[in-house]
Structures are given as structure tokens and as C-alpha cells.
Amino acid sequence: MKTQDFKRLYVWEGPVRWFHWLNALSILVLTITGFMIADPPAIMSGQEASARYFFGTVRFIHFAAAYVFVGVMILRIYWAFAGNSYAHWKAFLPFSKEARKNIWHVLKHDILLLPEKKGEDSPINVGHNALAASAYVLMFLLALVMVFTGFGLFSDNAGWWLPKLFAWVPAFLGGDFMTRTLHHISMWLTWFIVFIHVYLVIFHDWSEGRGEVSAMVSGFKFLEKDGFKEEA
User: Fold this and answer.
1) CATH classification of 6-224, choosing from 1.10.357.10, 1.20.950.20, 3.90.1150.10, 3.30.420.40?
2) Residues whose CB falls within 8 Å of the CB of residue 42, separated by 6 or more in sequence, listed in order
3) Domain boundaries, the chain
4) CB–CB of 210/204 below 8 Å?
5) Tens digit of each residue's pLDDT (9 = 90 or more) over 12-55
6) pLDDT tens track for 178-202
7) Residue 101 to residue 225: CA distance in whole angstroms
């Protein structure tokens, strides 16, 4: 049986891994608490609402997660300049001919599961593939929409200056209803990208055995020594 000679390569630096998991946790918490804020559950209790303060606690958790979300965004932007080549901002701009070819390959063979033609080159992606990089740029733009609309909705009740900087957003968008609608649409689009991301990571780990899943814990991937050029 033919065997492959693998090289252990450090790809995802510690800050990138921390940003990834903090971002994932904050999105999950924001989604759960956001649904509760949009459609509050009816919880029967003999206590006065002011004594329980349940909904106030939910709102506190939601906005605490929002501050974590914003903090991770700011630090990730910094690391796009300070990190290695796999985390660098240039890795998220799929404008080259090779990148566009990579996007088409991932769409055809990884998502639509179309068979590869004989002799067709299967690209080796050490960091993000071009489709994933494009999706993360879209996620960043959606995150900006959620931050602006979320803090815009919070600005009326906020007690400090940061959310109040976004008080103009609801008026600009035509009111709270449209602001809230855009906030929810951005959330659903984000989860759509998340589901595809999780599927592709598991798919590549299963089909290629290069440690896609464990790499975001350890930072290391396993790659065939032949067939790829290590980046600086």
C-alpha cells in the first residue's frame, strides 16, 4: 500500500486560535440571547419581575458578548498585519487567477461533490482556501452590520459613550424596525457561512487527513512533503 511522507507545519498562531474560539463562543451566546430578546419566553413565577430581573440578565449577557465580539474584531484586524502569512490580510484577497480557480474547485468538488476529471490538479491549501477567505471577508462585513445595528438599537438605553456613538444608525435606516430586521438578517447569513465552514473543515479532515479540525487547537497541520511550497 502506498504511503505518504507528511510534514508537521505550524500554521495557526496562538492569537488566531484564541480569536477563533472567542468569536465562535460570542456568536453562539449572542444568537441565543438575541432570540430571547426578540421573543421573550413566558416564565411563570410568583415573584415580581423587578425581583427576578431575568430579562435584564439576558440583555446584560447579550451586550457583554457583543463587547467581546467587537474586541476580537479589533484584535484580529491588528493580527492581520502582525501575524504570519496565513493570518495576513493579503491571504483574504482572492483576486489572482489561481485564487479564482481555487474557489471554483472548492465549489465543484467540495460543496457540490462533483467528481474530479482525470489529470485535474487538486490544489493544496496550507492556510485558508480562496473560497473560505472570501467567506471570512463577507463575515467581517456582516459583523460590521451587526455591530452598527446592535449598538444603534442599544444606544437609547446605554449608560456610556460607546453605544451612543451609533445613535444615528436607526434614524439613517428608517427606524428601529428596519434596524432590527437588518440585525437579524445579518445573523442568519453569518450562521449560513458558519454551517458551510464547519462542513468543509470536517470534509477536508476526513478526505485529506491533514488535521483541519485539530489545527485550530494545536496550530499544526500535516501536509505531504511533496506538492506544496512552504510560505514565509
Assistant:
1) 1.20.950.20
2) none
3) 6-224
4) yes
5) 899 999 999 999 999 999 999 999 988 887 766 666 656 677 88
6) 999 999 999 999 999 999 889 888 8
7) 23
